[in-house]
Amino acid sequence: MNHTRPRPVSFTLPTGTDAASVRARVEMMEHLLERSFVIPGVNMPVGIDALIGLVPVLGDVVTAAMGAYIVWEARNLGLPRWKLARMGLNVLFDTAIGAIPVVGDAADFVFRSNTRNLKIIRKHLDKHHPQTQVIEG
């Protein structure tokens, strides 16, 4: 049997300020935070948001900062204030619930603020920057 080391996955993180680059960064961040790997046996996608959230206080602060980054990117795209406020409330709610021991850790699997915020950004980009749409298949 040939045992070879897995090759490191290489990707480039777009650094531009154009809508397509921002979309790619936000989608990568959301994937990392909410769907990085699958729990064996349950087949439920989980991200580092749920894992880091297990660390009391510090975990919640770190995941809130990562969620705030997505809102900041949305601001740079020019999303209306009411959408930014909704996104901020998603992060705030996720952080507040996540701060409750045990209950908050379970809630991280159900209420995914970053996924909700990505949907808001995608809807805005699909309407105002249709050239950024990615065909998945």
Q: Report the strand count.
A: 2
Global mean pLDDT = 88
- Biggest sheet descriptor: 2 strands, antiparallel
Total domains, how many?
A: 1
How do the strands line up in the largest sheet?
1-2
Radius of gyration: 16 Å
What structural class results from the helix and strand content?
mainly alpha
Helix content: 55-70%
Ranges where pLDDT stays below 50 over 5 or more residues in a row are none
Please report the number of helical segments.
6
**Overall geometry:** globular
Task: Give the oligomer, counting copies of the same chain as homo and different chains as hetero.
Answer: single chain
Strand content: under 5%
**Termini Cα gap:** 33 Å
Order of helices and strands: HEEHHHHH
Annotate the secondary structure layout.
Blueprint: H1 19-34, E1 37-39, E2 44-46, H2 48-52, H3 58-77, H4 81-98, H5 103-110, H6 113-128
Antiparallel strand pairs: 1-2
Helix pairs in contact: 1-3, 1-6, 3-4, 3-6, 4-5, 4-6
